[in-house]
Amino acid sequence: MASYFRGYSPSASMPSSTAGASFSSIHIPSFLDVSSPTTTWLCTTGAVLVSLLVLEQAVYRQKKQHLPGDKWTIPLIGKFADSMKPTMEGYMKQWNSGALSAISVFNIFIVMASSNEFSRKILNSPTHAEPCLVYSAKQVLQPDNWVFLTGKVHVEYRRVLNTLFTRKALSLYTGIQDAIARKHLSQWLTDAVSDPSPKEIMMTARNLNMETSLRVFCGNHIPDEATVEISEKYWFITQALELVNFPLALPGTKIYNAIKARKIAHAWLELAAKNSKIAMAQGAEPECMLDEWVRLLADPAYKGRKDFSDREMALVVFSFLFASQDAMSSGLIYGFQHLADHPDILAKIRDEQDGVRAGDVEKPMTVEMLEQMPYLMAFVKESMRVKPPVTMVPYKTIKPFPITNDYTVPANSMVIPSFYNSLHDASVFPDPDSLIPERWLDPNSSANANPKNYLVFGAGPHRCIGVEYAMMNMALVLANASVLMNWEHEITPESDKVQIIATLFPKDGCRLKFTPRHA
Ligand code: HEM
Q1: Is residue 165, in this structure, part of any structural domain at all?
Q2: Is 343 helix (H, G, I), strand (E, B) or coil?
Q3: Where along this sequence does the record place binding of heme (predicted)?
């Protein structure tokens, strides 16, 4: 063995060009020279990197323990690729892998809860977990937005905002909602005359929702150009709502574009708050949500805070836009699709409309009229059960959260209550994938006996503040559409597939052909 090496010793015969040269004179690239500072640096860096990668795996496995989920996480990025292009099939696989399961994205440890018990436990444990929304939300909503408040401060702030959704306030909004819905539906019909082929309603329904929201919230305190501009730019915000996004707001990134869009919207909303205060100070009657809020603040009987700056009001209104635009659009688009695919249900809705409106299809909708439409409301509820706009809400643990006897979610993890399995639980909703509004009309049905399963609007201290308004708006638009127009669904191979853009949408954008009902 020794002789073998000896044959390759530096003193062995060398090609003539190097023979006789000393070993030290042979050029060795610095990165191979163990004595060079570069090599030392490279070795150290390599060792540190390897240690970090090993540590990353060890930490992941230590946090995950026995939960279902990958045994190893992809270094640094984890399941980032999956979170960029989420699919229903992927989520279902995850939800069905266990009532609790683990993943990691960019070293954020995530526990997904898919059962009703665990999802509700997370939503109702404010001392252990609080909403964190998606990663980009803080940058888009701004860190001092009220939606990031927690605990007692959140409860108190929300108490003031609840007054914007009372029955009296909702009655003020229905007139605006009705007028805007009719304006848009009429435009849809006009557009269908010039081109009668089926069209995706993805963007047209979003525009309807956006103008409705802006006019309900801001009335005429912003010009028409503002509603158009906000509507157009808002798509950038929707696109930035991925579960985990590229963290830096560098030019060209989705978050950068979303922040730019928010700045435009925020400037208009601040102007609306200012104009509302001026109008109300001049003795105008409340015509929108901001007016109602300003009136309330000036009421001598009011016991809450009175110092809401224009900026703070704009932040609140923006939070409502942020929370409602995608969810309402998803709910409405599936509402149209479900009715087109179930003419029997649409016929029952029309019968109910005829009864309440006494044949007058031009009669503006009121809260009282909506209260006389139980079948329509049951349909809206059922449509969102079958295709819940929001399938999950990210929360984060603020301290170790002993969610079961044998598993504690570590502090600073994401915990994601998911709603889909609760809403499709066959023991509560027999034939769970079928659209059956009647299940909500029988007071003794298992659906009505288990309200805890209806998680479409979440649960606990952060349950959707706009639930009644949202239900009412969807019902109002569909009621008006049902009496004013017919629509046919062009069914494509993608119609029943779901795409996730923050909320759920039919993958083909829902292609409908509209014609007037009473031509
Ligand atoms: C179909 C429409 C809607 C759906 C499906 C929906 C669903 C949800 C869900 C699942 C949550 C999270 C609840 C939780 O963490 O437990 C939520 C929160 C919220 N929603 Fe909605 N929402 C809708 C419409 C609206 C509308 C129209 C508004 C306002 C006008 C609104 C305002 C909010 C706000 C402000 C929160 C946060 C509440 C808090 O943290 O206290 N949402 N919504």
Answers
A1: yes
A2: helix
A3: 464
ipTM associated with this complex: 0.99
Instruction: Return the CA Rg of the chain.
Output: 29
> How remote is the CA of residue 372 from the centroid of ligand 1, in Å?
25
Question: For the whole prediction, is pTM greater than 0.95?
Answer: no
Query: Tens digits of per-residue pLDDT, 461-502?
Result: 999 999 999 999 999 999 999 999 999 999 999 999 999 888
213 lies in some domain = yes
What is the tally of structural domains in the chain? 1
Residue 501 lies in a domain: yes
Q: Is residue 58 part of a domain?
A: no
Expressed in angstroms and rounded, the spacing between residue 103 Cα and the centre of ligand 1 is: 26
Q: Which domain holds residue 321?
A: 150-391+433-516
| Contact (CB, 8 A) for 312 and 160 | no
- What CATH number does residue 493 fall under? 1.10.630.10
Question: In angstroms, what CA-CA distances link 228 with 61, 248, 401, 413?
Answer: 49, 29, 45, 39
100: part of which helix (H) or strand (E)?
strand 100-105
- What is the number of alpha carbons within 13 Å of residue 456 lying toward its C-beta? 25
Per-residue model confidence as pLDDT tens digits over 304-339? 788 899 999 999 999 999 999 999 999 999 999 999
202-224 burial: b if 16+ Cβ within 10 Å, else e: bebbbbbbbbbbbbbbbbebbee
Whether 466 is in the pocket of ligand 1, judged by its Cβ within 6 Å, is yes
- Tell whether residue 464 is among the known ligand binding residues: yes
